[in-house]
Structure formats: structure tokens, C-alpha cells
Amino acid sequence: MRGLVDAWLVDYPAAHRPDLIRRLRSRDDVSHRSAMFELMLHALLLRQGFTIVEIEPQLPNGKAPDFLAEAPDGRRFYLEATLASGIDNVAAGADRRMREAFQAIDDVRSPDFFLHLHPCGTPNQPIATARLRRAVQRFVDELDYDQAVVRAEAGQPPEPVWQHTERGAHFMIQPVPKNIRRRDDRAIGGRMLPGGVILPEAAIKSAVEGKAGRYGDIGLPLVIAVNALEEFARVGDAVDALFGTTGVIFSQDGAARGMRNADGAWRGPGGPVYTRSSAVLFVVRLSAWSVGQRSMSLILNPWARSPIAGLPLGVEVREVVDGRLETQPGQSLREIFGLPEGWPE
């Protein structure tokens, strides 16, 4: 995997490479994922015979999309990459503070126990991670392994249980004895995830709208590349996000027919919107580790001011033909980049 990333970096313009490497190395998930996505898109364009005319070209309004690209047939277009995570800046800050707390707990030396973590709430301010780690370490050091094994064999719940509340977040830890003692690896053996309602199409729609209205009248087609990070996101969610969510209309005689609500990024209550975006290049949960398991879809905007049909990217294409969305199959990223089956294993 690292060899693939390094090979892609060799082809990235030297003047822009240091900043991209800095972002790839970032501990911030958004910076890292954004840089990785941009690097993959750059490599994809080159692989398919496109030319990168300019990186971060300055537009009249002062904004700069990621790439100005030229197709093999000479057509030029702007390509802008974005992540669809559904997390706003406030939530992202809380998520980062929670991850810092998780890391502090995971840094505890716990050779005899796995710590099962049950968090709830979100921290509204930074947590004192050093103090948190010391408190958990004291709790672990006082645990009785033999007594914990007896309770586990009897089917009794772990005891004692450690709990802590700070800055709006609550942590509960249940110690579980390891089968092999003195195995000094990571402390956290399991973590409960919070429940909730997941709407992948809402995050995708927000990401597209944020980019489609950012650059004004640019005079060239704009392709928005979206990496949807939601666990349950699928290409169908991208279709819903762009053209409108699905519904069913029932008539008085009981007949039913499918329909789409006018709540898409490209189709609103008053008709077509965000027509400056010519297409969306969509992928789900792309990372450096998952290139071999991912495929992309190019979804064309039928109402685009500057259409961009026929781009030879080699990926699946979804296009409205006679009022219906037709799908033309394409290659996976593994096939496009010539990776062996099962890569990177």
C-alpha cells in the first residue's frame, strides 16, 4: 500500500508535493483523507491519459478548485474533491476530542486485561488526557486477575467497573481478563458505538451543494468528486442526494407508483438547481488501504450548463436517457491501476 502511494507521489508535481505529504502525514482524519483522495484522483487522471493542466488554479472570485484537467480529446474541466462525512465543524471538534480521550485510555499498560469501553455523550471542551490516563492506569493496576477469571468462568459480569464523567462525556470501562497474561499490547479490547439514525444521502447532498455553489460562473464544466465516509453509504444514496429521495404515490383507487421528491442537490422544488456542477464522481469510504476494493461512478447532471458526457475515465457512468437513469458498467479501481486480486494482502 505504501509503495502504491509513493509511486503516485512521484508523479505529483514537485512544487505541490511537500504540502500534500504534510497533509498525508497529518493525525487529523479530515486532512489525511482529503489529501489521499486528491492524490488518488490525480493518479486516476494520469492513468487514463488525462493531463493535469494546473493544480489549485485561481478563479476570478479568488477560490481555487483542486485541479484544472484536460481530457484526451482536448476538453478542459475543473475537478474538485470533497468528503461527505455528515460532520460539521462543531461535531468534528467533539469527535477529535473524544478520539484523543480514547487514545489516552489505549495508552494505558494493561498486560492482563482488555478494557471494554462504553462511551456516551460528546466533550464540549478538551479533556485532560494525561489525568485521564493516570486514573485508568491506577484502576488497572489495582485489578485482581485471578478473581476476574473466576467471575468470567461463572458467567458473572466484570467487576469492578470504572466510570468517569468530564466535559459532557461519560466513560465506563469493564475489564475482561486476557487468555494469555502479560501480553502487553493495546489496552482497549472493544468499544461500544453510539446509536442513531444514519442518512448518507443528506451528507452527500450537503457536500455537493457546498462545492457546486462555491466558484460562481467558471465557464468550464465542474466535476465534483465525492468520497462518502458513512459506513452504510452506497451509490444509490448519491443518486438520491442528486436527483431527490424516493417515495410512493398512492391514488384513490389504491394504485401505487414510484416517484422522486424535489429535494435533490440538482433538482429542487422549483426545478433544476446548482447547474454549474456538470457531474459527480462518486466513491464510498476510499482510503489508502481500500483502493483494491473500490469502484467509482460518474453521475452526469442532465441540467448542467456545461455538460461533460463521454469522459474516458473507465469507471461506471450513470446518465439520464429519455427520462430514465441508465448505467454503463466500468472498471474497478483495482483493474484501472493494475493491482493484483486481493490487494494489499
**Helix-strand pattern, N to C?**
HHHEEEHEHHEEEHEHEEEEEEEEH
In one word, what is the shape? globular
Distance between the termini: 9 Å
Largest sheet: 8 strands, mixed
Count of DSSP strands: 16
Radius of gyration: 25 Å
Compact summary:
This protein has 345 residues and is of the alpha/beta class. The chain has helices at residues 2-10, 17-24, 29-47, 89-106, 129-141, 145-153, 200-212, 235-243, 333-336, and strands spanning 51-55, 67-70, 76-84, 113-121, 162-166, 169-177, 188-191, 222-228, 246-250, 256-260, 267-268, 271-272, 277-284, 297-300, 316-321, 324-328.
Describe this structure in words.
The chain is of the alpha/beta class. 30% of the residues lie in helices and 26% in strands. It has helices at 2-10, 17-24, 29-47, 89-106, 129-141, 145-153, 200-212, 235-243, 333-336, and strands at 51-55, 67-70, 76-84, 113-121, 162-166, 169-177, 188-191, 222-228, 246-250, 256-260, 267-268, 271-272, 277-284, 297-300, 316-321, 324-328. A hairpin with a 5-residue loop joins β9 (246-250) and β10. The longest helix is centred in the first third of the chain and has 19 residues, at 29-47. The termini are close together.
Blueprint of the fold:
Blueprint: H1 2-10, H2 17-24, H3 29-47, E1 51-55, E2 67-70, E3 76-84, H4 89-106, E4 113-121, H5 129-141, H6 145-153, E5 162-166, E6 169-177, E7 188-191, H7 200-212, E8 222-228, H8 235-243, E9 246-250, E10 256-260, E11 267-268, E12 271-272, E13 277-284, E14 297-300, E15 316-321, E16 324-328, H9 333-336
Parallel strand pairs: 3-8, 4-7, 8-13, 14-15
Antiparallel strand pairs: 1-2, 2-3, 4-6, 5-6, 9-10, 11-12, 13-14, 15-16
Helix pairs in contact: 2-3, 4-5, 7-8
